[in-house]
Amino acid sequence: MLPIELVKRIRRIQIRTSHIVDDMLGGQYHSAFKGRGIEFEEVRPYQVGDDVRTIDWNVTARSGSPFVKLFREERELTVMLLVDLSASEGLGTHYQTKRELITELGATLAFSAIKNNDKVGLHLFTDDIEKVVPASKGSRHVLRVIRELLYCQPIGRGTDLSRAVEHLNKTVKRRSVVFMISDFQDRGYEQALKVAKRRHDVIPIVVADQREFSVPNIGMVELRDAETGQVAWLDTSSRRQRRLYEARATKAAQERDRALTKLGMDPIRVYTGEDLVEPLRKFFHRRENKR
What we know:
Layout: H1 4-33, E1 38-45, H2 57-63, E2 67-73, E3 78-84, H3 98-115, E4 119-125, E5 129-136, H4 139-151, H5 161-171, E6 177-182, H6 190-199, E7 201-208, E8 220-224, E9 231-235, H7 239-262, E10 268-271, H8 277-290
Helix pairs in contact: 1-3, 1-4, 1-8, 3-4, 5-6
């Protein structure tokens, strides 16, 4: 039995995100992803007028007579949400934490998918795999996804993107649209993503808080790494110290973006306390134009 307050939170998120989908994103999601390709169905003997480019030369060689491949358009997609629940997602200085933003993003994408009659699955991870919800359809299933996003209490505190992606590669056999939602505070995950991209349509969503890139002048402050527990002191009254802090954060973000771009991925960047609709809408529009 779920606590009443949690039920209320799930209901609030359901109302807000379903409204976003119905009024703002539903059509653009459909245009960006529906009927994204064709998949092989069967072979049959060649008939006069068939396109010679569809000849299956392997079957033709074995049988001694020409056969052609038949394809059908993919009408149903599988959408997987690969979601980071590491301790760093607890940061939030603009009305919400990164985890709260992640929950809204996950709910919005899940409602967009089921509105389009697609399946939705959920993989939650930290430095380990925390929870897996197999892909399925329907509003009740999306409510379960939202419940897990809200209610899951992860055991791990760190971030291991490689492990999460490798687990996805092993367990999700059918080609899927994978929204990877994380603050990407990790390194060395490029090879795992490269492998995943051969099989799936991987879309990184980078969540962040503006205080990760700049700090106000408030004197000496203690900074604690939520994942490792390491502590450092920063004298924010020093302009030089603030600039070093900002430069380091900017460099890390640029390195991450270069790595994702090199892999041919188009990351979506979303910040706490800001509208999540516009970044998604711009991404869907870019994806539709590419198609």
